[in-house]
Design brief:
It is a single chain. The protein contains eleven helices and 14 strands. By secondary structure, the protein is of the alpha/beta class. It folds into two domains: 2-218, Rossmann fold; 225-292, Alpha-Beta Plaits.
Amino acid sequence: MIETRDLTKIYGDLYAVNRLNLRLERGDVFGFIGPNGAGKTTTMRILATLLNPTFGEAYVCGYSIYNGAREIRRLIGYMPDFFGVYDDMTVIEYLEFFAAAYRIRPPKRRQICESVLELVDLAFKRDALVTNLSRGMTQRLGLARVLLHDPQVLLLDEPASGLDPRARIEVRNLLKRLREMGKTILVSSHILPELADVCNKIGIIERGNMLVQGDVREVMKQVRVNVVLEVKVQNNADGAATLLADRPEVESVERRGELLEVTLREDVTDFAFIPELLIYNGYRLELLREKEISLETAFMALTKGALQ
């Protein structure tokens, strides 16, 4: 659905996007992660055919951004970080105006507008003036607008930016619903928890360079240096901690409530010795699992934070 080949945008001596190679299939939800100024918005504007690259190629739904702009715009929904609204319109009037711009015929126009309002949980504000909406509701209205023509691809630039925690949760739940509908979504953010449980793929970009991309779990594995395990025993956790800490394979053991967090040395990946050791010494093992690295940890490990 989306493919870029050495996509590059240069402003003077600045590489806003540097030889970006990206491929998204139908139904992918790709989290585009990076600090402010990393190149996320520039990439999205190019894919939306609003900005020409310096060189390189990009395809959206099989159409080139160079000679297929008209077709691409029919098939995508692009939502920028900040967008203007017409303050003297009600919510339903605002959507009907854009539905007319999308050339949706009058008999279906009202029905489609009502449908997308239900989808974004904004039906109760249908007759409210746009100017009276909160920031979170305005973001949901923006999502409703880009869904009017049922696009195959959604380009969402920081949809949760500036929202309070409740509004961010609502936007995240909406993204999950869109994923269930089979939409291909490219969503950018620097608020990492917003993407951790929504996307099946992520890419981390800094200074225009894609540092890493791929399946969420694979990216996490790439940035992990040490294996970290969570261990729980039924009796004498302090004794178990001392026993494990004395092993040469173990770098450190920390007590976190009922759990022991065991960090292995950098070159150690086999932890079969842990249950054997504990059981041999009379401990009843209740839990042994590898601790998943967080998206925040992956981000901090890969980026230098120079643009933050």
